[in-house]
Write a structure and sequence with these properties.
By secondary structure, this protein is of the alpha/beta class. The chain is 37% helix and 25% strand. The chain is built from 7 helices and 12 strands. InterPro entries: C56_PfpI-like (IPR006286), Class_I_gatase-like (IPR029062), DJ-1/PfpI (IPR002818).
Length: 183
């Protein structure tokens, strides 16, 4: 039974995202009935990565500017990792603004691996408990988060995980948080 019918989840990414960190959770969300919307800097397709090898191109549904203009249409936000993606996306003010709008509204946000860099640059991790790829722990701690090394961490509406191996637990936790927000 689909439990997320009529929910819209924005997925923020640019070239260089870790492909499985987008497709794994996205496919689970869609299986639960959610509509996913890929949001990026430009309207051109973006390139996924299989660690350090090029993956597939994915069509973009909206730009950051278009999504930022109407953040209320989204019920949740998914941030895949990938070093190149995460290093670039954190520099986009409109991506940061969309993240802040979701946090301000108390909406579910799920972040995996290097995706936490966008949260750091958006100024939303202070006082939060979360996990990430281990190399981000200093960045997260310096931004005021409590970093822990766990498969998945749920802190209110924030769900975080470390790596692709965590995707099943990450997806389960995000779906549970979205279901709670739907009530």
């Amino acid at each position: 039974m689909a439990t997320l019918n009529e929910m819209n989840v924005a997925i923020l990414a640019v070239d260089g995202f870790e492909q499985v960190e987008l497709t794994g959770p996205r496919d689970r969300l869609q299986a639960e009935g959610a509509r996913t919307v890929l949001v990026s800097a430009r309207n051109e397709p973006i390139l996924g990565m299989h660690h350090d090898k090029p993956g597939d191109r994915f069509p973009v549904d909206l730009t950051f500017a278009q999504a930022e203009a109407e953040p209320g249409v989204f019920d949740g936000l998914l941030l895949p990792g990938g070093v190149m993606n995460s290093d670039e996306i954190r520099m986009h003010p409109k991506a940061q603004a969309l993240v802040r709008a979701m946090f301000d509204a108390g909406k579910p946000v799920a972040v995996i691996c290097h995706g936490g860099w966008l949260l750091v640059s958006s100024g939303v991790v202070r006082g939060r408990t979360m996990t990430s790829w281990p190399s981000l722990q200093d960045d997260l701690r310096n931004a005021g988060a409590k970093w822990v090394d766990q498969e998945v961490v749920v802190d209110d509406a924030l769900v975080s995980s470390r790596k692709p191996d965590d995707i099943p637990a990450f997806s389960d936790a995000f779906i549970k948080v979205l279901q709670g927000a739907k009530r």
